[in-house]
Amino acid sequence: MKKKEFIDRVAEASGVKRGEARKAVEAALKELGDALQRGEELNLPPLGKMTVKRQQDGGGAYVIVARLRRSKTMLGEEVEGGKTAQEAPETVTEEI
């Protein structure tokens, strides 16, 4: 998803004008990027918990390898034995 589409989705989901959504999204993305570059852990439900695993200055870019951990509760998935995630919470880990 590109930033324009993300802004459009946020505007629609929040019921605010696209211009206002753009300002909020750009500010939020900047703060998230700065926090990750400082090596801070982010705990942002429903997105999940993100921790920085490695950082490297790649010349023209700053490379950050992070791990995103999302609770199945946030995903609304069923887990073992037909129980809902609320009854048997576990986590899904995605490497980005």
Give your account of this protein's structure.
The chain is of the alpha+beta class and 96 residues long. Helix 1 crosses helix 2 (18-37). The radius of gyration is 16 Å and the shape is flat. The longest helix has 20 residues, at 18-37. The chain has 3 helices and 4 strands; from the N terminus they run H-H-E-E-E-H-E. The chain starts with a helix and ends with a strand. It is 38% helix and 29% strand. The model has no long low-confidence stretch (mean pLDDT 84). It has helices spanning 3-14, 18-37, 72-75, and strands at residues 42-44, 48-57, 62-71, 91-95. The protein has a 4-stranded antiparallel beta sheet with strand order 1-2-3-4.
The overall pLDDT, averaged over residues, is 84
What is the helix tally?
3
Strand content: 25-35%
Portion of residues in helices? 25-40%
Structural class: alpha+beta
List unreliable stretches of 5+ residues. none
The neighbouring-strand order within the major sheet is 1-2-3-4
Topology as a string of helices (H) and strands (E): HHEEEHE
C-alpha end-to-end distance: 15 Å
Main sheet overview: 4 strands, antiparallel
Over the alpha carbons, how many angstroms does the gyration radius reach? 16 Å
Number of strands: 4
Shape: flat
